[in-house]
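thoughts on my protein:
***
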Amino acid sequence: MAKLFSLLFLVFALQAFATVQAADSTDTSATLPSAPALRLPPAAEPPPRVLTLDLTRDANDIWDRIRRGFGMPDLDSPLVAEQQIFYLNRPGFLKQVFSRGGRYLYYIVDELERRGMPTELALLPMVESSYNPLAYSRAHASGLWQFIPSTGRNFNLTQDNWVDERRDVIASTNAALDYLQYIYEMHGDWQLALASYNWGEGAVGRALQRNRDAGLPTEYSELKMPNETRNYVPKLQAIKNIVAEPEMFHLELPYVANEQHFVTLNAPAGIDLATAATFADMSLEEFLALNPGYNRPAITAPGQTLVVPADRASNFEARLGEFAQSGKGWRTHDLEPGEKLDTIASRHGLTLAQLMQLNGLASGSRLSAGHTLLVPDGIDPSGALAISRLLPGNSRLSSPPAVKLNTSAISSKKGNTSARAASTSSKRSNSAAKTPSKRTQPATKSTAKAKPAPSAKPAAAKPAAAKAAAAKPAKAAEKQPSRKN
């Protein structure tokens, strides 16, 4: 009996245990209140980086001075990051370009400050030409600021057989800043002004009008434009960011002193550029980097100028005086009817090939009577022949050498990251590039440039002074005022 009671008790216990297990496995989510979802506050965005400058002290170097004059609104775009990667993955390129630009930056920054313009614009030639005054594009744009022939003429930049002021550092800088001021006043916006500088103010004006007609925004980032122009302002912004805080990118900018790098002196008529380079104790390449505007190896016109380093000016000027007293030099010769080039060459102690080289003549050139030739007048032509091979049009000098600086140039302290290719070429035209006009070289280079008349249409804006000059009859002979036989 006791065994039976124990067996029944065990059965009832097992049934009770099964009931409890079933209850534990039952879904109670419908009856129990659910816990509220955990909501975290949104992550706070990091505050924007603020560039802090101590304006109570003098600028340490030219980069410090440029930072102090930043005045354009920053462009916030993924394209800026892409361009930064492009530049940062090329530390050797940055080193070369910043070093090359060192000889020009003081003058450009000085002129920007005098005009009250943002100093970021001193970095624009890096986008345009990599600070190479001999740069020449497929669109026939030339010089630091990449003027096409027609725009150069609009801003009074002489282009003839003797000079091309689009390559002249001083003349082209003044013209470029005149142009930038003009298109900024047209749009009231620096990003649109820069787009106009690259694409043409007429093209930007039409893009703005299309957006207005469609009820769309008219900011730079909202316009439909070519890829080159779309990346143009981001390139400048990327360079600005690097110059603003190089340490953030683990870079060291080359030291460029905040002091005048060069001066302009009057050149005696008849001097050749090789002789002038010797007087300045400079290599031919270094001398041409400061005097890239000449198309011929000698200067025959009175009132022309030469650019030399400021610390060599006194000695250079003294030696120029000695040269002027020597009675030797270079002059021009006007081709007579029926006169042969080999006869002229022999008369002046040259071979025919040397005469053609000095005058930039190609084999088979057909010259008419009255054509002006450069010939030696009692001077050894070897220096002029050497430098003529380095003048624009000859492939032996594609860019000037980097200026020698006091400290090590930019070095990368981080591993490279992947970069997307970005074109650095630039064009500027509202119409097809035209052949440079033939006109007499001016006696001196003027720093005062006429601005386009306010009533001019954007696509064909032209300085009032340039219009007046265009109305004058062209002179019969294309040459410098010269020393003649």
Notes: The first helix runs from residue 2 to 24. Confidence is low (pLDDT under 50) at residues 22-35, 403-485. The chain has 18 helices and four strands. The chain has two domains: 62-256+408-432, 262-388.
